Structures are given as C-alpha cells and as structure tokens.
Amino acid sequence: MNDLIKKYNVPGPRYTSYPTVPYWDNDTFNTEIWKEKTLLSFKESNQSEGISLYIHLPFCESLCTFCACHKHITKRHEVEPDYIDAVIKEWSLYLDLFDQKPIIKELHLGGGTPTFFSPGNLKKLIEAIFEKSEIHPQKDFSFEGHPSNTTREHLETLYALGFDRVSFGVQDYNLKVQKSINRIQTFEQVKKVTELAREVGYKSVSHDLIFGLPFQEKKHIIHTIEKTKELKPDRIAFYSYAHVPWIKGVGQRGFSDSDLPKETQKREFYSYGKTTFDSMGYKEIGMDHFATPQDSLCKAIDNKNLHRNFMGYTANKTKLMVGLGMSAIGDSWYGFGQNVKSNKEYYACLNKNEFPLLRGHILNKEDLIIRKHILNMMCHFETSWQDNGMKFELLQICLERLKPLIDDKLVFVSENGLKIPEVARPFVRNICMAFDLHLHKSTPSKKLFSMTI
Questions:
Q1: What is the per-residue pLDDT for 179?
Q2: pTM for the predicted model, two decimal places
Q3: C-alpha to C-alpha distances, 444 to 14, 247, 441, 447, nearest whole angstrom
C-alpha cells in the first residue's frame, strides 16, 4: 500500500463540484445567464423537492492557521447587524427572481464562525429568510458551532427556528497540535457543548476531526479518537488536512512544511481511524465521513440518494442550492456562481441592488454527464454508462487513463461501468481525475490543489 500511496499521491481536486473552481469558464458567465439558469432550476424543482440554502457567515475572532475558508478576522461584534442586513438584501434579490414562494428543504450556516453572531442576530436573519418562504416537511437545518463560543442560547434559539443538526470543529485534542494551528479548545469544552446540544433536543451532533496536521503523531490520533468515543457523536467527519498555502497565504504559513506528517503517516492515521470507527459501529460515508447506522446519511447510501456539494456529503439532494453571503457559492445544477470575496465588495453590490457575483460557470452537455459520473463515484464508488445518456465522446480516452489504476486493482472496469473496491477508497479522487476533461485539457502550471492522499 505504501508504494501505491507514493505512486498516486499527487495534487488533485476534492470534487465538491465539476468542473472544479479553477476551471470555470468565467468569460462566458454573467449575472443574466446565472439568473436564467437559477430560475430554470427553481421552476423545475421547487414544488417537487424544494431548494437548499447555504449562508456564509465569515467572521472569526482569531485566525485558525489550518483553515482554507474565506473569513474575516475581527473582535468587533458591531459588524454583525450590517452583515445580517446585507444577506437579507441578497435573499430579497432571489425572491424577486422567483415566480413562486420558495420551499426550503435544506439550510446550512457555515463560515467563518456562525456562532460569532449573537443569538438575536441569527434569529433576525433566519426569521427574515422564512418570512416569504415555506418549510419543506422533510427539512434538514444545520449549523457549524465553535465549541469555545457556542452557548445554550445559541442552541436554543436555532433549535426553536427548526435547526436540529450541529457540527463542532474539534480537529485534535493535543495541545501542541492545537497551538500550531491556533485553535485551542479543551475536551471539557467540547463535552459541555455536545451534551448541551443533546439536552436542548438536537437529533444529530457531528464532530470534525482532521488528520495530517502539523506535529500530529499517531498517538495524538489515538487520543483524539478515544476522547471522541466518550462523546459518541452521531457523525464524524475525518478530513485529510488540505495544505494549500499558495492559495491562502499567511494563514497556512504558521508552521513549516517539515512539521507536517508524511504521506505514509497520514494513511496510517486514516487507516487507524477507519478501523476504529468501524469497531465503534459507524458506517463509512463517501471518502471522509462516518455516521451511525440510523443516521440519514446511511439511509441515503442505502437508497442511492447520497449527494455531494460544496457543503460536503448530504442526504438531501436538491437541484438548486442558493448561496448567500460573502464568497458563498450557489449551484443551479446547470451552473455555479460564486459571490465576491470581501465584505466591502459585497456591501457595494447590494447597495446598488446587484447580485454580488464574482465568477461562475455554466455547464455544457458534456459537463453535466461527467458531473453525474463523478458524483456517482464520490458518493457510491461506482458509475455506469449503460444508458446512452451517460456516454460522452471522450469516454474511451478517460477509461484508458485508468489503466494504471486498473492494473493496480484500484478500480474494476466492465463494458458498461466501473466499481471502486473498498480498499481503493483512498484513491477515489485519482479515479475521478481520469474523467476530468478540463483538468487534462489544461494541465496547471502551478499548484492548485492539495494532495489526493
């Protein structure tokens, strides 16, 4: 396995979208075509499946040096009202676009640190979103909470508004690792907020763990997982650290590359985690999530409904996901659109009653087919082209690119499809890369992605 890790550990996308963001065709993208594709998707799916909303809340009081998200560091909480008002204004632009009342099935608050905002301001935001919307009977509302600042009032306020899932960023419990990434929180803090959430009534509590962090050793992984076992979260996200300092600049330069675990160490960390989670009764979801058998993600796998988007894996596939807030990405299925990345630009656009779009991509017929294949592989570790609608002109060339992986028994290809065996799941990104026509048409001259393994 170590030889295979060395062979295939190359920079590659995480495929939360296809095409991936660096290959979006921004030249053919504009606000009018984004509105057209968004409205088309809304008309096709609102009544049948509802829509998803992602709201980006970017403020953090301190910089976590492992983080690759778009954020704004400040301790000035007086910034909250202006940002809330701006998000509400952006939502009003979408309401003016839609020809009927939106039915919200999925809603997620991400960041940044959503719990930077006061419970009162979060209540104002969510109530404004709901004022001219309907709630889907199978709704799924969630938010990301910081263990150090999520209060009972946060939990109770959002629960009363319909939120019943919360995820807490734990990363690692070792103090040296925490100091290196400037994210210090004790097990006692995580325990308190986890128990509070359950006491309030949340049906799902998730913990995010990261392997491959600076100074991390196997004993730290073992300790973190043992402490996680005590709290038994309903979901565990076990992410490989994405080291992309060339994109995120100083934020990920708080330590040197030599402080990071080697590739073989990372695989050992992952293997230990997977084996232990299996023994604890969790089921592996996709390539980096684990959930209890009764969790909706497990049911989505069994029903072939598991979906992957910019929020990660979800049991709620909707054709339209509206992204609100600075840097948020929307997905109309037929296209992607990302908002501007600074609050100043965001406010300026909304003050002019303009959609605050920075860039995007409209998918052509070939993109849509390949997107389905990559989603199938990322979610279900198999895909099929038996249906003519799943074939595309360069399919054979993509299959030829898989030959080394086929020879190494990491993927099995038949006349009408392919399957990825369980042992090859760490290499799923490499397999998807063989289908990525944009990547192969224009091989990057500089680093764009984190390593695949």
A1: 93
A2: 0.93
A3: 16, 14, 10, 7
